[in-house]
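Good morning N.,

You mentioned wanting to compare the apo and holo forms, so I went ahead and generated the holo version with flavin mononucleotide. This is what I fed in:
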Amino acid sequence: MTRFDAEQPVGAGGAGCPPVAQTVLGLHGQSTGLSGACGTRLVEGTPRRPLATSVRMAVNLGGLEMKNPVTVASGTFAAGREYGDFVDVASLGAVTTKGVSLNGWEGNESPRIAETPSGMLNSIGLQNPGVAHLKEHDLPWLQARGATVIVNVSGHSFDEYVQVIEALEDAPVDAYEVNISCPNVDAGGMTIGTSAASVEKVVSRCRAATKRPLVVKLTPNVTDVTEIARAAEAAGADALSLINTILGMAIDAERRRPQLARVVGGLSGPAVKPVALRMVWECAKAVQVPLLGMGGIATAADAVEFLLAGATAVAVGTANFANPTATVEVIDGIAQYCERHGVHDVNELIGALEC
Ligand SMILES: Cc1cc2nc3c(=O)[nH]c(=O)nc-3n(C[C@H](O)[C@H](O)[C@H](O)COP(=O)(O)O)c2cc1C
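and this is what came out, ligand included:
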């Protein structure tokens, strides 16, 4: 077994970043664009599990029982297997898989990752091998380890979202997260998630296709996120997750060229956290269903902020690329925060912001 030891750096990142990040991103030795954050090296070890705590850590996300409030953000943890040497996937609140489509997509042209101050831009474009591959290779692996599984569902059309869910109904899946917010595809994705009418339509159709908990993932690339949140709730979402990446771009002035082949991409990492927190706080006041908060969470302090703003659970995303054990550290840190503040049940933190 191997793991990364964040306390014993091996210098600059780029291609020197954790190989797990390059694998998940499909970079094969190119830079991950995470150079500032990659002070890690491989050492022998066993997958990390959270420390024992007297704090009650279980939460319920719209019918999904999570043993603690921490999952991973889709697309930053593959289907869990790539992180299995670092983290006991069963000890997470849930593993959220990379977005899956019916037949698989190749994704966008490279370069599709760029580093920006306190963040990264990606235009991966929902590359994935398709739902049959997920069922055959990844879901059995997660099931054998006892992981709680959220499958992130993507599609080019309303029909495709439904077909993916239907294909998964006989598979060991605990909940679906419907991604109507990817900024990196031309059809489906964010184009669906920016209009309340199309959100109602796609969510109602997904709702009719399953009785399992249905989480709908919202885009931040709208004027009023609460309008979209209300539409998803009205159409039958059991929970909402937010935020997906924020549209951005980066330019190489020397070459007078965009850094991404697709020109624009989705911004993630610490740079987006204030926007994400604001949107979680707004949605918490606008809807009754629970929220899964994400956007720039790298530490337990970040995660607690999201819980206080109104999230029932949180997801660690881009941080996984620089620190493959970030999830377990966040779980431990939340429990320690609770212990320090005399909080016996993590649910007491949800929406407890005083303002
Ligand atoms: C490389 C990469 C791939 C992603 N792929 C997906 C995806 O397949 N489906 C999805 O809903 N979100 C996807 N996202 C968005 C993340 O799940 C998350 O919403 C966003 O990155 C904000 O969280 P973070 O700042 O902690 O990374 C992706 C993000 C990154 C960085």
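The longest helix spans residues 326-340.

Happy to go through it together on a call whenever suits you.

Best,
F.
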